[in-house]
Structures are given as C-alpha cells and as structure tokens.
Amino acid sequence: MEVAGSQDITQELSKEMFRAVETGIKEEGERLIELQIGPAHPGSGHMRILAWVDGDVVVRCDPDIGFVHRTIEKLSENRAYIKTIPLVERPSLLDTTPMTIGYVNAVEKLMGVDVPPRAKYLRTILAEITRIASHFYGIGILAIFLGHSTGFMWAFGDREVMIELATMLTGARITYAYAIPGGVRRDMPQSFPDAVEKGLRYIEKRLKDWEKIFLNNPVVERRLRDVGILKPNVARMLGVTGPNVRASGIDYDVRMVEPYEAYDEIDFMIPVAEEGDSYARGLIRFKEIEQSINIIRQAIKKIPDGEIISPQISRLFNPLMKKIYAEQRRVKLPSLMATLKPPKGEAMARVEAGRGEALFHVVSDGSTNPYRFRFVTPSFRNVILFKYLIPGHRVADIPAIYGSLDYFPPEADR
Amino acid sequence: MSSREDLDPRIKELINKGVDKVRVLNVKTPPPSRSVQRNIDALATGFRYLTKPMRMTIDYPYKDIEYPDRYRGMFRVDADKCIGCSLCDVVCPADAIRLVLRDKKKVPTINWGRCIFCYYCVDICPVEAFETYKIHDVAFYRFEDMLTTLEEFTKRPDEYVPPRKIVGKKFRVVIDENRGLRYEAIG
Amino acid sequence: MMAVVIGPFEIPGRLIYDFLHIFILPGFGAVLVLVILIIWAERKMAGLIQLRYGPLHVSRRFGGILQLVADLIRYSFQEFIVPRNVDRIAYLTGPALALIFSIIPVAFIPVTPYVEPPIYISSNILVVLALLSIAPIFIIVTGYASDNKFAFIGSLREAFLMISYEIPFIISILSMALLYRSLDMSGAVDFQARYLPGILLNPSAALVAYIAIIRITGRFPFEISEAESELVMGPYTEYSGLMYGVSMGIGYIKLYIYSMLFSIVFLGGWLPLVSGDPVSSYLIGGLIILIKTSILMLISVFLRSVYPRYRVDQAIRLGWSQIFFLSIVSMIWSLALSYVLR
Predict the structure, then answer these.
(1) Least confident of A9-13, A363-367, A409-413, B2-6
(2) Is A355 domain-assigned?
(3) Is ipTM over 0.85?
C-alpha cells in the first residue's frame, strides 16, 4: 500500500466523489448559500459544519473542529506517568476503558512489566462493557438526528444498564481509571457474574424490539439507505477506521490483527458488510453489540483465578497493604507508582476503541514525566469523511451521515 | 474474505503465521420488503410499550439511589493515623489535595472543586488514613466553601456540607432480566 | 338541510348561542382545554413509551396535567426580543395572522342539527377549506421576514409541501361532497346517518385526508418544516417570549380544526344523536364531536414516538406520486358509488 501522497490523491478522490455538482459557481451569490451549522445548533455537536448549498444539494462541505481542544498531550508532559491515566480517558468519554488500556500497555512495554491473566480478563470484560455503552450512544445520536426520539431515549436507557454493571465492578459510573501498570485496581464482587448475565439477557431481548421500531422502520430505511456510500478503495486512501470501514467491506479489526489483553483466547467474529451506506453503518453497530455480548459471556466463564496485580509491584507492598489485598482484594498503590521512572526508550500500543483504532506512542527520557506522548484517536481519522461523503447529498442528509459516522468531537480534538 | 487484492504485507505475514482467527461475519442488509407490514409492526411495538410501561428512571429527589459499597464518594481523613508522608499530594492528578501544618505535623486538606474522585490518594496511603463514604450529590452555596479547612476534612462530609431540603427514600438498583433496572426499597 | 329552530330573527337566543358557540364549545374554551390536554398527553405518551416519566412535577397528584399552564405562564413573562434587521410588520404579525386564520373556521362549523352555526353558508365545506388554505401563506411570510438562513429554508420547505399536500386533501374532501350530494356539513351527516360513515363508504379518501392532515399540521413523520436537527426551528427560529408560545400552538390548533372537519365528513359528526331539543342536542352533539376529534388528535400525536421525519424531496415525491394518485382514485370511486346509490 503506497503512502498517500498529497495533491494527486486528493484530485483523484475528488473526481470520484463529487458527482455532477460542478456548477462553476465558487462563491456565495444568487444560487449558493453558505450555511454555518455552528456550535450552537441542535444538530451539530461541538463543531461547526460549513456547507455550501445550491437549492437543496450540498456542493461543498468543510468540518471546522477544534472547539474542545484541551491539550491533553501537552499536559501529560508535566505529569507523572500514572497521573495521565485519568487524563487520557477524558477525551473519549464514552469508551474510556480502551483508551486507558492502550496507554497502560504502552507504559508496561516501556517498563517491562507483565500482567497476570486474571487482570487481562478483567480488563477485557470492562472494555467490552464500555464498548456496548459506546455503541448505544452512537445509535442514540443517529436516532435523534433523524428525529426518532424514541430511539434516543431507548439507547440511553439501555446504556444505563451497562453503566450500573461497571459501577458494581469499579466504583465509578463512567470514568473508571481501572487499569494501572501491572494489573487492575479492584477485583470483581461475588454477585457480578449473575448480574452480568441478567443484564446481557435484557439487552438481547431489547435488540428484538429495536429491530421492529428502528431498523425495520420504513421511514428510517428511506432516510438511511444509499446515503453516504463509502467505497472500499476510497476508505483505504483516506485512512478511516472502525465500524465505518467495516461497513464498506474491509475486514480490519485491531483485536484480530494484533491481539492485546485476553482477545487471543476468546472466540469471536467481526461483522463486515458490503454496501457502505449509512444503513450498513448503523446495522454493523447493532451486530457488534451482539458480538460483545458473546465476548463477555466467554470471558466470565473462562476467567482464571489468581493475582490481579503483577508480582513485580505487589512485592513492594508493606504489611498493611498485603493484608488489605488478601482480605478485600483491593490493590493499594505502592509509593513507587507515584514517581515511576521507566528506562529510556519509546513504546507504541494500539487498541480497538468503539469508534476505531487508537494509537498510543510514549517516549521516555528516564525522568518521572514522559518526554512526549502522542495519541491518535479514531474520530480524528474519520473527520475527513465529512469533506468527501456529504457533497452531492441534500441538506437533510447532513445529520444522517453525521450520525452514522459516529463522530465524537471531544475525542477528535483531545 | 471480500476485498483482499492489495493487502498490507504485514497483514499477509500475520495470516501466514497462522493468526487465522480473521473470522468474518458477513452482514447482509436485509432487502426492503412490504412496507405496510413493517409500519404496523412499528406502531404495534410502540403501542405495546404504551400499555405496559417499563420505567427505568427514578423520581429524584423524592426517591434516591443507594450505590454499591465500593462507590467512590466523598471521604475524610483520620488525622491521628496520618503520618504526613505527602504521597496523596504527589499522586493526585488534579492537584486537589494539599498538606497543611498542624501541631508540627503535616495533614491533608482537599479542594472538592478539583477532585475527580479517582481514589488514587485513598489507594496510595500507606497507613489507610482515609475513610470513604458514598456521599456524592452535594451542592455548595459559595465557591470558597469547596476548599475544606482541616477541621472540616476530619469530619464526615455530611456534617459540613449544606443540608438537603428534600431527603428521599433510599432505593437499591437491581439488574433485572425483563425490565433492565429495578428499584428495591431499602428499610 | 338544517331544521332551523333558532333563526336569525330571534335575537336573544341567537346571541346566547353565538356566544356559547364561539367562546365555549366548540370555540376558544374547548380549543384551549383540548390543546392543553393533548400536548400533555403527547408528552406523557412519549414518556411512557420511552421508559421515563414524562411531565410530573407541576401538579404531582394529577400526573402533571398543569405543565402546559406553567409553560404558558413562563412564555408570557419572557422577554420578547425583536432582532434589528427583520421586517418588523411581517415579523410581528405573521404568526398572529396564521393563528387567526386557523381558528376562524370554528364559526362556520355546526355541531348540532337543530341550530345554525354563527355564520351559516350553505356551502360550508368549501368555505372552511378555503380559509384553512390561507394560513400556510403567513407561515411562509414569517420565515422570510426573519433575517435568518435557517428560517428561510424552513419557509421554502413549507411552501413546497403546502402545494403538494393541500391539493390531494381538497380533492378527497370534494369527492366526499360529491358522494353526499351537498357541500353542507349537516347534509353530509344526514347522508351518513342514512347509509354508513364516510370512512367505510370511501376508505381511500379517508386515508388521503388523514395523511394530508398529518403533513399540514406538522406531525411526525412529516414534521419537515420545523426539523430540529437540521434547521433550528424552521420559520419560527427567531421568536422568543409569547410569540414562541403562539408558534408552538399554531400546529395544535390547526390539528384541532382539521380533526373536527375529518370527524364530520368521515366519522359521522354528531351521530348517533338524531333527535332532541336544541339545548340538549347542542350539548350532547358538541360533546360527541369533541370526543371524536380528540381521539383523532391522540392518534396523530402518538406517531411522534414511533417515526422519525422524512426528507423534503421524499415527502414531496410521496405526495405527488402516491397520495395524489390515491385522491384521484377516491374521486373515481365516489363517482361510481354515487351512481349506484342513487
């Protein structure tokens, strides 16, 4: 695969994607209206979408991002390694666990710490619970952008079940900070496997009602079919990731290609569709929820007993900490964690977040703060689709395509 | 395996190595069929929920939720146990805990406006000087009230936060197969 | 033809009846009470389907019925800001005139076979249809007068859709008038008393009329001119304060009048009332019409919880291809049926 160049690739793409909208008019005037679907708009999120419209047909579309930039990468250069874990989960507030897992994997590679198997399974269970919650959020936003308020409320209600399960496991509702270098912080309580099974059965029952009222709804199909078709070669050239690209026929998932945590011991499938329109993207998210249910069930059955924190860290416990760990299975942090000094070097880790592939690159120069921390989020890679998918469609398709891409502005802006 | 003409060489290598769990579930979007039947289905589903409501929300503040025991709420410090090692100050990601002098010993105080309730400080304390509670939904009248003094931080949180006007009955959340979330009264 | 008991020359009875008809039942009083109840029912039904409570806090013991009263009081006290660059006369009078022309037909609609409505014209149906067709023009003017691109696009959508859906509606109502052999509403009810209700005599006309009503009053799935996620509020984007309350109410008042027209032409009006004295027939007939109207309104607002909204071109295509075709079919069916039922 050749590296994407600059001018010739975009010109080739433009010819392929801009259909019959060459009116020759380049500026706002009698025919072209510039719509600023700005930050204070019910259908725009934390970004501005500039759309040049001829009648009802969008001629050109530019996303304007950066409204929620919080300089996460720069902030992490002034903090110890362990303090960046809550920081890294704040941008993508919906699927927080894959982001922490990625960062912690990178730091563990730098330090050379191994993770015990039970901790890997616990991280996997929480990651899949978070993935179901994140997909429900995406489906809810797609529904409300079409005007289907029932889909919106149902999505957030079903997501609440997953959040209560996570509260049972970690103690917080959305921002868990559950993974630390060497393992996890809490063990699962006795009533957890039962509650998880009930929650998963509830979601399976609800998915049938979802089909009847949302996926098979004739109006929803008319709005979403053949809208925003993403062809596979265009997807490859643009470098987009996640369920968007799996709906176009490319079967790429980081959990299969480079398995991390406990994914190489669990038997699951990745759903791939062929059409590439918005309906396929929505449908893929529903199928991924079913696959996540499958993964959680297998992980809970197969989870081994044992330690939840690596012995390299638990030998630094003082007697009080060892007693608490033995009685309550609660991991106390030894004082070394606050001033961790990994050896010089760099490490990279990749995870599959809810919206695609996230990359973490940590460079250390031997001190307590990292020298450089770079992370690329999947929404940042998907934002280019606004420019290439929307022209040629109508104004009412802008929220439909936006909702189906599941683009989350704070995750892209970091 | 649909579009495999020009694969990345690294992926080809992985496939040759035997990572053959590239097991793909081909999803076919269902063809649009008779729309009268689907309209009636959607309307019937909506009507069914109308006649058999499954409310998932709770009538706060007349009813209140009691979270599980490991819920991360506000906490207090036991000043006699504290040894003044200042590890909680070093590890706090939000710079919420500061140490002040009391009787020639350093003891922590907290700024609740900055705390993110990650419980790193609670977990790193070597003598287990923090005592945790499940209190979380408080409101302060002034911004300066969120910075606790030392005397306040050694007391239970509901002794120095503004009292609640409506205290609801406590309910516990139970995950249910048919209704999702069910609320059971406690006491 | 009406068995007129109170004619135009018995002044005191006439005045009392006019006052009651216009201000209490089925006029302003009934409109206000019914609109408040129907909006509450819409929000409560949506809440029940969507796993939540709906409005509850304002009057807890009655399930939050007075929520709309609280909303109206709040809108009355909010500051009404007039932006600088709008066309003042059109901006200030647009929603008000749309409201007036939506509510005027109530003076023409009879509710009992024994008393004339305040203004009696023997071709009732035609006059009511004509008055109802004027209201969308003021909505278009409203959107154009606000100096806002989203309002402008909203009023353009309203213009397109008004043409595509008013025409099938008028054709279907006129086909029923052809079947009933009179353009008078009381004549329509007499015919239905003799044979069957209009919805069974000509089902395609009823279907066309109902779908057109859902579009014209802006209920889901045709809530296109005020689409919230594309245009902030369509033609009414720049309004605040009491005018915002008025613009929210226009849709529901139009739904009331259209549902009343539908229940008289298709559902039998004040049947099963056939005889009695003027006073009791007014009360009972009015109540029966109100019940039928409110059932129709409840069904129309229930659709909010089930459907999203269509795109403009899909709605226009639906209107011109399928709804228009069905209205022509209904016209041919009534011609054939009126020949048979001679």
Answers:
(1) B2-6
(2) no
(3) yes
Report the candidate in A248, A278, A233 with the shortest Cα–Cα distance to residue A12: A233
CB contact under 8 A, A42 and C306: no
pLDDT band, residue A297 (cuts 50/70/90): very high
Chains adjacent to C (≥3 CB pairs closer than 8 angstroms): A, B
- Tell me whether A148 touches chain C (CB under 8 Å): yes
pLDDT in tens, B109-158: 899 889 999 999 998 888 888 999 888 888 888 888 888 888 888 888 88
In this structure, is residue C195 part of a structural domain? yes
Check B56 against A157: CB less than 8 A apart: yes
CATH number of domain containing A224: 1.10.645.10
Residue C1 lies in a domain: no
CA A401 to chain centroid? 18
Nearest by CB: A154 against C50, C149, C311:
C50
**Is C302 an interface residue toward B (CB < 8 Å)?**
yes
Chain A closest-CA separation from residue C333 CA (Å): 28
Q: Which residue of A has its CA nearest to C52?
A: A153
A157 vs C51, C227, C230: nearest CB: C51
DSSP C153-221: HHHHHHHHHHHHHHHHHHHHHHHHHHHHT-S-HHHHHHHHHHS--HHHH-HHHHHHHHHHHHHHTT-TT
- Judge whether A38 lies within some domain: no
Question: Cα(B52)–Cα(B75) distance, rounded to whole angstroms?
Answer: 42
- Between chains, do B119 and A272 touch, taking CB under 8 Å as contact? no
Name which of C220, C229, C310 to mutate to probe chain A: the one with the most chain A Cβ atoms within 10 A of its Cβ.
Answer: C229
Both tokens of C267, joined, read 């559902």
Rounded to a whole number, what is the distance in Å from the CA of B138 to chain C's nearest CA?
21
- Pairing between β-strand A57-64 and β-strand A179-180 as defined by DSSP bridges: unpaired
- Taken in order of first residue, the domains within chain B and their CATH numbers are 75-159 (3.30.70.3270)
DSSP class of residue A364?
A: E
Neighbours of chain A (3+ CB pairs under 8 A): B, C
CB distance A313 to A287 below 8 Å: no
pTM of the model: 0.90
For residue C5, being part of any structural domain is answered with no
Residue A9 lies in a domain: no
- Contact by Cβ (8 Å): A97, A178: yes
Q: Considering its fold, how many domains does chain A have in total?
A: 1
Q: How confident is the model at residue A198 (pLDDT cuts 50, 70, 90)?
A: very high
Chain position carrying tokens 């991002």: A65
**Domain extent at residue A296:** 114-310+380-413
The CA-atom distances, in angstroms, between B107 and each of A102, B80, B124, B149 are 36, 9, 15, 11
Count up the domains in chain C and report the number. 1
| Residue A247 belongs to some domain of the structure | yes
Domain housing C125: 11-340
pLDDT band at residue C1 using 50, 70 and 90 as cut-offs: very low
Cα separation, A261 vs A184, whole angstroms: 12
pLDDT in tens, C103-160: 999 999 888 887 888 888 888 899 999 999 888 899 889 888 888 888 888 888 888 8
